[in-house]
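REVIEWER CHECKLIST
Item 1: Sequence provided? yes
Item 2: Single chain? yes
Item 3: Sequence as submitted:
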Amino acid sequence: MTFNDASLTALRVFREVAERGTLTAAAVALGYTQSAVSRQIASLERAAGTPLMERRHDGVRLTPAGRIVARRASAVVDQIDATARELAGIPDDRATVRLGWFASAGAALVPPALERLRRTHPGITVIGREGGTPALVRAVRAGTLDLALVASAPPYRPLDAETPALAVQVLTERSLRIAVPSEHPLARGEHIDVVDLRGQSWIAGPGDDTSMGVWPGLDERPVIAHTARDWLAKLRLVAAGCGITTIPASLAPACPPGVRVLAVRGGPSEHRRLLLARLPGPLPEPVARVADTLRAVAVEAVRDADG
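Item 4: Structure as written out by the authors:
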């Protein structure tokens, strides 16, 4: 059996597993049973003549051969799908760029960037989706995203341990800030002293994500008044006087009325980096145009905020 015997179904399944990180998640996304997904992966490994992924307790990790197959599988499946669309009379847009982003980038940076692209490069279609940084990194590795906007906090570790390293560009580095209700006592000044954060009620992320919303290094067990995954929901709760939350400085322009965003003075400085990640190598022209636009909009946003 040779790799030429690999089926399109097996390639689709492998791409989904590579992107989602577990057989279970891929099975749910595809509407298959987990055993069916396992059989497709096994058939692809027989065709390749080598293991393509390591099964671990926390999911799967691609082998070097698996990373090659993931990239090629994505290209093959995309070409087959494009051919099917063309045969069906749907024109194929050769300038489609697949972009992923984390939540606050989707609220603050992506909309103005897409608006600018529609004016400057109307032939480029951006297909986007939101996700957490680990999922976005897997999608870039699997070849299902061309670019990903991801966040990085100190100590700024690599996005993953795979090789080759992803090509990563720092678009901005801004301080973490606090969003408070406009009528809150903390809103009276031009900044907040870190000691005044003690005893406050926080609006945090759900589950293990509670740190997303609570000031890092707070020297007490925080009082979590509400948890919410969506940034807009958090900020609406702040506006309603239900608590305070941390936000990246880039999100300040997107805050609803009734919210003040203030810097924190005292204690260690907290900064967040906005990164643009992609696979290493030359960029196709449409992808490079999207990357340039994201970079320009990010730089302008920082300049406007600081001005």
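Item 5: Key structural point noted by reviewer: The chain has a mean pLDDT of 85.
Item 6: Recommendation: ____
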